[in-house]
Amino acid sequence: MLIIDGDYPMAHGGVSFERDLTLPIEETRTEPILPHRHSDWDTSRSGTMASIPEMRKAEIAVALVKISDNCILRPGNDHGAFNTDHHSYSNGMSQLAYYQILETMGHSKLLKTSKEFKKHMSIWENATDYGDLPVGMVLGMEGADPIVWPEQLHEWFEQGLRVISLSHYGVSRYSHGTGTGLDGGLLEPGKGLLTEMEKLGIILDVSHTSDESVKQELDMWNGPVLASHQNCRSICPGERQFPDHQIKRIIERGAVIGHSMDTHMLWPNGIDWQNIPKKAPFQKTDVTLENFVDHIDHVCQLAGNSLHSAIGGDTDGQGGAQHAPLEIDTVADYQKVANVMVDRGYSTVDVENVMWRNWNRFFEENLPG
Fold it and tell me: Domain limits of the chain?
């Protein structure tokens, strides 16, 4: 069955950690770590979940890929990765260049318009062998700090940016995000950025955004909205997940909600997102695909149908296989979600909606014409 993954911060692993994601996954996982690399994430290369060949094996026709981890350090925000605007911008541009070279080399196809998306999906739907097909990519940004001022967004749009979340961890230039509590809202530049986004037809991603920021965004936003990787607070406590009233509100706006494979967002006891533990307070065996499908089922029950739930793996952005549900080793195992849904009595139509058709419909309708 085809899959569309609603969240894959691919360039973070490809650029920041110099993983060769054009290799078969076994080679990516055993690729030597360069001597100048020494971070904990590099030593977890053995848990890399995705590469281009593995995505084809998984039947992932399209992924919403991200420019991510570009937050700027600010007073009271220790989540930042950069000290200055120009460093954040430059790193964001390097991730953009990563996606562009993958396309130039024939590994992928950046899908900038509805027409391009439809054509790409038609090829995948009619193919019997995905081994040589380019993987489709819709370009998103997770935390908008690389956009140094709102009008600069036009430059990013010309390069293919189509989806933006205003915040990631901490306080961005534009809004409060994960780890800042529930009450912090938009900052003044955020309103200007939303205005420019709406002019260009860019899609608003409400993931990683504080409750008050989401409320304020939706109060002034008239364009399309999605949640690329978001789970349910009523099942897994913690500010990173959405409360039911917020889920209902974005469903009313036609949103699709991609569910994250991050076990921190699935462990029923929840964690403190302002003090994320360096070591998970649970074992990999404690979180399974049953927990993951609980979130799919909850959104389907809130919506009264299967038209708003989808896959939003946060693939490799959540720490790789070590921090994925028990049954997940690589993205090829995302196919197992369908089996769990069938066991719970979901129809073939419902399963296909969640695995790919909901994202397919959403992007066909909401990417620029």
Answer: 3-366
Is 249 buried (19+), middle (13-18) or exposed (0-12) by CB count in 10 A? middle
3-state secondary structure the chain: CCEEEEEECHHHHHHHCCCCCCCCHHHHHHCCCCCCCCCHHHHCHHHCCCCHHHHHHCCEEEEEEEECCCCECECCECCCCECCHHHHHHHHHHHHHHHHHHHHCCCEEECCCHHHHHHHHHHHHHCCCCCCCCEEEEEEEECCCCCCCHHHHHHHHHCCEEEEECCCECECCCEEEECCCCCCCECHHHHHHHHHHHHHCCEEECCCECHHHHHHHHHHCCCCEEECCCCECCCCCCCCCECHHHHHHHHHCCCCEEECCCHHHCCCCCCCCCCCCCCCCCCHHHCCHHHHHHHHHHHHHHHCCCCCEEECCCCCCCCHHHHCCCCCCCHHHHHHHHHHHHHCCCCHHHHHHHHHHHHHHHHHHHCCC
Which of 49, 52, 60, 46 lies closest to 24 in space, CA to CA? Answer: 52
Fold of 3-366: TIM Barrel (3.20.20)
Angle between helix axes 244-252 and 289-303 (nearest 10 degrees) is 60
Cα–Cα dist 170/317, whole Å: 17
pLDDT tens for the chain, 369 residues long, are 999 999 999 999 999 889 999 999 999 999 887 766 555 555 568 999 999 999 999 999 999 999 999 988 887 667 778 889 999 999 999 999 999 999 999 999 999 999 999 999 999 999 999 999 999 999 999 999 999 999 999 999 999 999 999 999 999 999 999 999 999 999 999 999 999 999 999 999 999 999 999 999 999 999 999 999 999 999 999 999 999 999 999 999 999 999 999 999 999 999 999 888 888 999 999 999 999 999 999 999 999 999 999 999 999 999 999 999 999 999 999 999 999 999 999 999 999 999 999 999 999 999 999
CA 18 – CA 77 distance, rounded (Å):
27
